């Protein structure tokens, strides 16, 4: 069906003709019939690369051109920044003859520029949920004026954890019957279906069935290769296929960075896109890729959706994705739009080969397995020679940690004498090997030997304290007999609560030492200590009797509690008998 057969504005038809949009795809035809003719909301499932972006953009322009919607704007929610830029570019191409202001809202860029675009009263706002909520909380945008709500890549939004943000945004919008609701998703799940039926006005479900979720024009190949040989095979395939442009997908940021580094070392013009790269640099790389300045792009799954590069002839899955749906989106970067054919090559190594079963189950077909023919084998051998002759970067002469250890610490030569011929405790003969110590020498290693000269004593710098007597200037051994500290012969009176001792006048033999000390200590007990009342819980010497022993309450003197308990039980048992 032709676009001209629908009741579209002439300016809109002129824009479609300018970009060679004449015949509708199945999803475009079904969407326009439901919106333009049946006046219904749309809940559509369609595989990637089938023109669903153009379908909701045409329906959005048609709805905003109505006289009663001149003060309304359209809100398009997408999961990634790259998809925001892609939709804005296609919207400008379709509506190039319409005087519509557009605004893009996404993270990673300055607030001021986006705030300025919102103040110009845009008719179309393409945004990611997180940054849009920030502007809504600051009252920089009034979502009550939204006349169209479009949710693209709904399944991806849920996978990225935007479910709560979506619900917050929908609550700020007008009622479902007061706006046009369009929801598109490459795959369907329960969350997407629940969102459609709860927050849309009786939507019409559109499912574009296909024999396979992937585009039929994509040729798929699979190579079973070990993990250590994937890079060599990748370089050989690039020589054989010689593509105009190619995207190489890896499961990790580190893997994508390693691919880009190796390809640059091999002389290829390669760029890298992953999550930690700033948005401004990402857009610059994508534009260079579209203009042909860059032919090879190493990327993670962040570039698997919403990235449209014309004439992309080859997609290589360096790693099989953990999520089977990402495989569909990866290879969907080729054979898009007017390009009807494309090639997708996947490597199945010992680590990611377990993802193959779920991928083939989702696409409902077996991926044809390829073998290395003679031509490819020759290219592999040539690549191995080139890699061996290519000088490695400084600091990467050896990739093995153990090779560095062998260079710095070579193994000692074995002793020539047998172990049994040496006596126990005898040291083994020293070898001629002198281990190299790469540790930088410190100042401690070069410390000069201390001389053993006797230095004169330093003068005392401590000031004398008035509350203490001055110390003697004589040496400790040279003090006069009168200055030497002696033990006092008088008892101390500063602690009357403790018995004090004084040194005996004459030394007693060792055998009678304890007895004399006991007599001496008893003779010097103070009067206050003797007259002090003794506590009932104070320990008494063995054999001593208290003059007035305390009587516990409820107990007779010298009565054992345990015997009383036994007597009590004996009386009870005797009564029972």
Task: Note down, in words, how this protein is organized.
There is one protein chain. The protein contains 19 helices and 13 strands. With 577 residues, the chain is α/β, with parallel strands linked by helices. Among the domains are: 205 residues, P-loop containing nucleotide triphosphate hydrolases (Rossmann fold), CATH 3.40.50; 172 residues, 3-Layer(aba) Sandwich (Rossmann fold), CATH 3.40.50. A seven-stranded parallel beta sheet has the order 3-4-2-5-6-1-7. The chain has a six-stranded parallel beta sheet with strand order 8-13-12-9-11-10, sandwiched between helices. Strand 12, helix 13 and strand 13 form a beta-alpha-beta unit. The chain is globular and about 110 Å long. About 5% of the residues have low confidence. This is DEAD/DEAH box helicase.
Helix content: 25-40%
Q: Summarize the main sheet.
A: 7 strands, parallel
The overall pLDDT average reads 78
Structural class: alpha/beta
What is the number of strand segments? 13
Secondary-structure arrangement, i.e. CATH architecture of one domain? 3-Layer(aba) Sandwich
By CATH's scheme, which homologous superfamily of one domain applies? P-loop containing nucleotide triphosphate hydrolases
CATH topology of one domain: Rossmann fold
Instruction: Please state the CA-atom Rg, rounded to the nearest Å.
Output: 46 Å
CATH C-level class of one domain is Alpha Beta
Shape: globular
Proportion of beta-strand residues: 5-15%
Distance between the termini: 111 Å
- Number of separate helices: 19
């Amino acid at each position: 069906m032709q676009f001209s057969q629908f009741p579209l504005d002439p300016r809109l038809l002129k824009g479609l003709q300018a970009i060679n949009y004449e015949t509708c795809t199945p999803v475009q035809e079904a969407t326009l019939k439901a919106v333009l003719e049946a006046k219904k909301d749309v809940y559509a499932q369609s595989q990637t690369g089938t023109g669903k972006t153009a379908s909701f953009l045409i329906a959005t322009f048609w709805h905003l051109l109505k006289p009663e919607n001149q003060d309304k704007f359209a809100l398009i929610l997408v999961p990634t920044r790259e998809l925001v830029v892609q939709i804005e570019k296609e919207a400008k191409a379709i509506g190039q003859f319409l005087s519509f202001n557009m605004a893009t809202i996404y993270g990673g860029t300055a607030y001021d520029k986006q705030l300025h675009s919102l103040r110009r009263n845009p008719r179309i706002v393409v945004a990611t949920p997180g940054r849009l909520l920030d502007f809504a909380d600051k009252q920089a945008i009034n979502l009550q004026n939204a006349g169209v709500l479009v949710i693209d890549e709904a399944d991806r939004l849920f996978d990225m954890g935007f479910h709560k943000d979506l619900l917050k945004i929908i609550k700020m919008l007008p009622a479902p019957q007061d706006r046009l609701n369009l929801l598109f998703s490459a795959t369907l799940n329960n969350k997407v279906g629940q969102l459609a039926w709860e927050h849309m006005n009786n939507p019409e479900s559109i499912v574009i069935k296909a024999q396979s979720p992937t585009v039929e024009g994509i040729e798929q190949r699979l190579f079973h290769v070990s993990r250590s040989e994937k890079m060599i095979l990748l370089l050989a395939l690039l020589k054989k296929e010689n593509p105009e442009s190619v995207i190489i997908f890896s499961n990790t940021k580190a893997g994508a960075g390693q691919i880009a580094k190796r390809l640059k070392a091999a002389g290829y013009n390669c760029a890298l896109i992953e999550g930690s790269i700033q948005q401004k640099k990402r857009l610059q790389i994508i534009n260079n890729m579209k203009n042909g300045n860059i032919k090879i792009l190493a990327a993670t799954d962040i570039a698997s959706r919403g990235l449209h590069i014309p004439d992309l002839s080859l997609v290589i899955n360096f790693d099989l994705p953990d999520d089977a749906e990402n495989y569909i989106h990866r290879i969907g970067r080729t054979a898009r739009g007017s390009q009807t054919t494309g090639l997708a090559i996947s490597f199945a190594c010992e680590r990611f080969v377990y993802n193959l079963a779920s991928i083939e189950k989702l696409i409902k077909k077996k991926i044809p397995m390829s073998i290395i023919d003679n031509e490819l084998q020759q290219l592999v051998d040539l690549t191995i020679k080139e890699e061996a002759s290519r000088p490695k970067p400084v600091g990467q002469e050896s990739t093995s940690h153990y090779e560095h250890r062998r260079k710095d610490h070579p193994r000692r030569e074995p002793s020539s004498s047998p172990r049994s011929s040496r006596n126990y405790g005898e040291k083994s003969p020293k070898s001629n090997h002198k281990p190299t110590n790469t540790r930088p020498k410190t100042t401690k290693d070069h410390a000069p030997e201390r001389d053993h000269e006797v230095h004169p004593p330093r003068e005392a710098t401590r000031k004398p304290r008035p509350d203490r007597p001055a110390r003697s200037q004589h040496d400790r051994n040279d003090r006069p007999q009168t200055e030497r500290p002696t033990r006092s012969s008088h008892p101390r009176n500063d602690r009357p609560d403790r018995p004090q001792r004084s040194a005996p006048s004459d030394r007693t033999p060792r055998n009678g030492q304890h007895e004399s000390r006991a007599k001496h200590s008893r003779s010097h007990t103070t009067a206050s200590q003797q007259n002090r009342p003794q506590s009932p819980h104070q320990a008494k010497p063995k054999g001593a009797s208290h003059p007035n022993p305390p009587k516990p309450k409820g107990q007779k003197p010298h009565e054992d509690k345990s015997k009383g308990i036994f007597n009590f039980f004996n009386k009870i048992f005797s009564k029972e008998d």
